[in-house]
Amino acid sequence: MPLTPCDLTSADLDRMLILNNAAEPNVNLLSHEEMARLMEWSAVAAGARGDDGTLLGFVLALPPGLPYDSANYRWVCARGVEFLYVDRVVVASEARGHGVGRVLYRAVMRAAATLHRRAARVVCEVNERPPNPGSMAFHKALGFRPIGRVDYGVGGKAVRFLECRHA
Fold it and tell me: Where does the chain show beta strands of DSSP type E?
């Protein structure tokens, strides 16, 4: 499947929202306004398009210090290190297994290396409850290692925080 990396623009918001909300519960549902705000805050807002120009996936990665009301983001910020936080990486169901995620993460790793003088640090979380074994295996294959875990209680999510560093 031919893929073309791209920077996202406001013209992509509707498609991003469709992809995002179709991926629930692996990512939380968002409104158009919430997606636009995340995109505005992002240090990396990258996508991958198919040969017909359709957006097949996207990634939004945030720098530290934003007024983002996300418990997971706040957990990462509390560690007091420089990072890019992958708030969401979403791939269309029909495009999974075709390298879209790797294209998206290349954009994040390049940006992390540019933003930080030392090793590039990229942090994300993957659901343990409800389980997301495909995402866990994907991140492990990219070199991500566990750095923490938060359990939000009975009936809530449990997440594993992962980190990848590249010199």
Answer: 4-7, 44-49, 55-62, 84-91, 120-129, 145-151, 158-166
The mean pLDDT of 83-91, rounded to a whole number, is: 95
Q: Could you read off the pLDDT of 146-156 as tens digits, one per residue?
A: 999 999 997 78
Output the pTM of the full model: 0.94
Angle between helices 32-41 and 13-22 (to 10 degrees): 110
Q: Phi-psi region for residue 80, left (φ > 0), alpha (ψ -120 to 50) or beta? A: left
Q: Which residues are registered as beta bridge partners of 124?
A: 162
Rounded to whole angstroms, the Cα distance separating 164 from 20 reads: 23
Where does residue 165 rank: exposed (0-12), middle (13-18), buried (19+ CB within 10 A)? Answer: middle
User: Looking at the domain 4-166, which fold is it?
Assistant: Aminopeptidase (3.40.630)
Alpha carbon 43 to its chain centroid, in Å, reads 12
- Per the listing, tokens 């995340």 go with 38
Domain boundaries, given as residue ranges, for the chain: 4-166
Q: Are 106 and 5 in contact (CB under 8 A)?
A: yes
Q: Which helix (H) or strand (E) holds 33?
A: helix 32-41
Sheet with 145-151: strands ordered across: 4-7, 44-49, 55-62, 84-91, 120-129, 158-166, 145-151
- Long-range CB contacts for residues 63-70, cutoff 8 Å, separation at least 24: 63/115, 66/41, 68/38, 68/41
